[in-house]
Amino acid sequence: MNALSWGKSSRWSCFVLAGIILIAAGVRFYHLGRNSYWQDEFLSLENSSGNVTPLKSLPTNRLIVSPPHLTRLNRSASWPQLWRLPDGDLHPPLYFILLRFWREGFGDSEWVVRSFSAIASVVALILFFLAMRLQSPMSVALWATALLAVAGSQINASQNARDYALWMMLAFGAAYFMLRILHRGFSWGGGITLGILTLALLLTDYLAIFCIVSLLIYAAIAMRQKARLLTIAVFLVAFVLYLGIWGPELLHISHFDTGWLTDRSAHPYWQTTLRIIELPLSSFSILGQSLLVAILFFVLLAAAIISARRDPQIIFWVIWFAPLIAAVIFADLLHHSLMLNFSRYTFVASTAFCALVPVTSRHIFRRFCWVAPAALFCIAAGSIPWAFPLPTEWRDVARLFRQDVQPDDVIVYTGGNWNPSAPFSLFLGINHYAPELPGKTLLLTDVHAPITQVLPQTGHSVWMICYQTNLPPQAIFPNSRVVQAMVLPNIGRVAQLEAR
Length: 500
Description:
Structural class: alpha/beta
Number of strands: 6
Strand content: 5-15%
């Protein structure tokens, strides 16, 4: 029996869908708590803790005695302490508030905290299927959902204690209810639900506004007059409410350091072009492919989209993809940044590839339309090991410090010459796993600060964690010698220094 004929049987369809959901859940929960948190996850813990001492209020370039434990859950925190501009993190507050309730209810381990994102990712997969089903035959919706289940960028986002999976869940929820209005007519229940999801999207991630722009554009061109006006009104009301709720905080957003996102290559425009070409395959974590293969896949997908451009499904997914990706490409070209290098900025828009492959295959290959999505599914499934977040070793560093740091020692956190925000995120790593360390703390944002000339002192050690691994410790502390040093992936250089 042809694989696509399964769509004719509701029983088979339910079995296949259940299998896809189980596969998606399995890869999203696999080794969920194996790695220690990484820098951005520490910011999630700090912003959801409710502590009254903001991270960025800690003094820099001078010694700190007994710094506060910033990631510990403060159960006595009031709502005003939670509903504030997140400290050191350029994100609205909704995810941090929900994560706080999650931590209060279920605990603080890596597995528990990340499971919030894993569950949101599985729910997003189901909403994606429902949105596909409103526009496509069952077989196409199942193939698209299967591709989403094994897409590397989705797996990676689901295993991070960040807002990414929540963003995707709310985005597909809004897409589903907007498409439901398109196909079944406007109802106040559906309209109010769409408005709530839109408001929640805006309060989850600033880039989510491009998802709303996509839905607005499609509603404007695809809906009939009354439904179109009411749907656009729902989006506008949600945006006005967002400005009323969060607008005052937007006025207080200060400059956030983005030096770590700068493309320092000799040819940034060429590198951005390569990343655009590789985006369809990289969204599935298909690594190591030659540039020729990436170009071929990119051209074939573009040609398929153009050939079937009048299909409403094609139009929807192209519009879903275009605004966010265009904004990211524009930012990379304008500022020579590396946003396309990080799936966190594009993974919601990249879900369009999961839909476009089976949809365009159905137009082009007819009877053999299952071949392309099946081949891509197998290749993406084989690439899953490269989809998981890179390991960090904060537990090992904390263990070393607990064993060897003495009361008169100094622990220095620095980003080196080009990342002044790194000391704060590095500090949170040790602050979380070893909060009661003896010794003093130094958040070094200026590697030429006077204090670097008097440390280390005779008989005492300086323990330095430097994000910039190619910077020798003596370049910061000229009067020192290295006792021991190591370079740890996704942390930086860890070194013990003593006076010469």
